[in-house]
């Protein structure tokens, strides 16, 4: 089958070299029918056809009562896929071995030069199918219980881990998260923005976007531990500021794999702490910050047969990038103008870039959005690096921030983030503690229940609107990385006006009233300005 003219690359390593077109006007964006590839019949099923096609075309009879969905998937499995993926050094070393690559079945976290690794896909094989084929295939899987495609991650299996057997996948049907139209926030508080959206990744199983990456990583570990590979992996470990440990513990519990988590003492919320405890993980509380925990877990996994689950391991980014593809799906494969992402260890902004760019390269869309990375001012090494023109990166000891999950001063994925930002003409912005808490409270007053990290991204949006960088009619997506219920203490302190040196201007404390009709009416008359 002929490859669409827009698909010109045969390796994901070439994606970073493609320039991006200018952003269209609102009028152009609203009518994109001329940009869509014509719909065509799916290609005849061959060994290159996507796995799962036979399941989607099977008769509609209910499976036998004694058969579960995993067994049903095995019975209906179509032809074997010839799509593949592997590890390569990131960025490609100019003076290293140009042929250096590793199988995903190897336990390896660093290149031969000590740098990061990246998962690369056989783009030439994927490009044998037009963008319309992939759009239709992914759309056909949304909201189904067909294993494993009901997951927002595994519905894009061919773009994630194409070679893994469905029987090895560990999924909690993560993803498929809501794209919330922030109508009132945009209209009343952001100068009449009518196309403002919040991607609510925090409504996933463990309450954060980390589920998207952890299903990919734990599935690969499950594959490694089982026959025929039978690797001697005794457990999976991570350092965490809270959300990573929650996701790892849940997925390991589902798979029956021991989980070990290193947490900085007194630096995460109780709601985050109880999650790995409840899921049976071995929890070590260490008197250090996240960066100290990260150093220790790397030393431990180098000595013991424990698989490293932090974003140093690029497998997680393959799952996380599906949130970007999901955004495109939810806009009927139209591309937003801006996507604003909170940044701590900085793997997520690169993951979003990978998802958008992969879709562009394979003809699902025609461009990528501009990316914004939002950091807390108390933990802002990328912001400082950006302000220096990317000439002087300095790690730092992160200060305390309500956005505790991004309280990181020495991010592992700093180089990945810079690639994503440069490739998308991206911006880095910061938010003070008062700015992020006020933005969180204001969002809540318009119907959200945002976490402080979402507050960082929203505060960045307020600043970029004030500067005229983001326009009134720009379609803008703010990525909400966790559920507000994980951070209730920060909300309690804010609405009690119990935060030192903070005005808490949007606080809404409860009103103590005597239990009699007159007192209640007095309060209501005053509160409602005599409109009763």
UniProtKB/TrEMBL annotation:
Matching entries from CDD domains are given as:
Thr-synth_1
Q: What is its EC number?
A: 4.2.3.1
* Any one biological process term the GO annotation gives: cysteine biosynthetic process
Entry-linked InterPro entries: Cys_Synth/Cystath_Beta-Synth (IPR050214), Thr_synthase-like (IPR004450), TrpB-like_PALP (IPR001926), TrpB-like_PALP_sf (IPR036052)
Taxonomically, which superkingdom? Eukaryota
Q: Name the Gene3D superfamilies on file.
A: 3.40.50.1100
Any one GO CC term of the record: chloroplast
Q: Where in the cell is it found?
A: Plastid, Chloroplast
| Biological pathway | Amino-acid biosynthesis; L-threonine biosynthesis; L-threonine from L-aspartate: step 5/5
Q: Cofactors per UniProt?
A: pyridoxal 5'-phosphate
Q: What does this protein do?
A: Catalyzes the gamma-elimination of phosphate from L-phosphohomoserine and the beta-addition of water to produce L-threonine.
Protein name, please?
A: threonine synthase
Query: To which species is this protein native?
Result: Hordeum vulgare subsp. vulgare (Domesticated barley)
Task: Name the gene behind this protein.
Answer: LOC123444170
């Amino acid at each position: 089958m002929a490859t669409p003219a827009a698909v010109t690359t045969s390796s994901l390593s070439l994606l970073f070299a493609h320039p991006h077109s200018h952003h269209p006007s609102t009028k152009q964006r609203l009518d994109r029918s001329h940009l869509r590839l014509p719909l065509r019949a799916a290609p005849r099923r061959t060994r290159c056809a996507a796995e799962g096609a036979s399941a989607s075309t099977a008769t509609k009879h209910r499976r036998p009562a004694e058969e579960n969905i995993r067994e049903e998937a095995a019975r209906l499995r179509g032809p074997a896929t010839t799509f593949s993926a592997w590890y390569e050094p990131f960025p490609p070393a100019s003076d290293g071995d140009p042929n250096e690559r590793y199988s995903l079945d190897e336990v390896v976290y660093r290149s031969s030069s000590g740098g990061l690794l990246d998962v690369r896909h056989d783009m030439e094989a994927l490009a044998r199918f037009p963008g319309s084929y992939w759009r239709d295939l992914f759309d056909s899987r949304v909201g189904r219980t067909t294993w494993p495609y009901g997951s927002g991650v595994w519905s894009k299996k061919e773009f994630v881990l194409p070679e893994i057997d469905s029987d090895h996948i560990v999924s909690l049907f993560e993803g498929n998260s809501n794209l919330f139209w922030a109508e009132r926030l945009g209209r009343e508080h952001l100068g009449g923005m009518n196309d403002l959206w919040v991607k609510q990744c925090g409504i996933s199983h463990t309450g954060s976007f980390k589920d998207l990456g952890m299903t990919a990583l734990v599935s690969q570990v499950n594959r490694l531990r089982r026959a025929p590979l039978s690797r001697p992996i005794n457990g999976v470990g991570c350092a965490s500021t809270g959300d990573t440990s929650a996701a790892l513990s849940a997925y390991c519990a589902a798979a029956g794999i021991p989980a070990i988590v290193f947490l900085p003492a007194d630096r995460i919320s109780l709601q985050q702490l109880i999650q790995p405890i409840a899921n049976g993980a071995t929890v070590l509380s260490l008197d250090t910050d996240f960066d100290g925990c990260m150093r220790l877990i790397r030393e431990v996994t180098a000595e013991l047969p424990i698989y490293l689950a932090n974003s140093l391991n690029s497998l997680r980014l393959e799952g996380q990038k599906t949130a970007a593809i999901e955004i495109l799906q939810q806009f009927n494969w139209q591309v937003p103008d801006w996507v604003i992402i909170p940044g701590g260890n900085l793997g997520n902004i690169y993951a979003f870039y990978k998802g958008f760019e992969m879709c562009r390269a394979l003809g699902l869309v025609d461009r990528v959005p501009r990316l914004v990375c939002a950091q807390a001012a108390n933990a802002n090494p990328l912001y400082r690096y950006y302000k220096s023109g990317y000439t002087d990166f300095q790690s730092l000891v992160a200060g305390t921030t309500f956005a505790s999950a991004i309280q990181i001063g020495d991010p592992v994925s700093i180089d990945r983030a810079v690639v994503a930002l440069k490739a998308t003409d991206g911006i880095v912005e910061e938010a003070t503690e008062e700015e992020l808490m006020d933005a969180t409270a204001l969002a809540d007053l318009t119907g959200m229940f945002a976490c402080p990290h979402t507050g960082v991204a929203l505060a960045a949006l307020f600043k970029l609107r004030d500067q005229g960088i983001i326009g009134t009619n720009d379609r803008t997506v703010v990525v909400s990385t966790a559920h507000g219920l994980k951070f209730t203490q920060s909300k309690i302190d804010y609405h009690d006006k119990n935060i030192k040196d903070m005005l808490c201007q949007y606080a809404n404390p409860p009103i103590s009233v005597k239990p009699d009709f007159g007192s209640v009416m007095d309060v209501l008359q005053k509160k409602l300005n005599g409109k009763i």
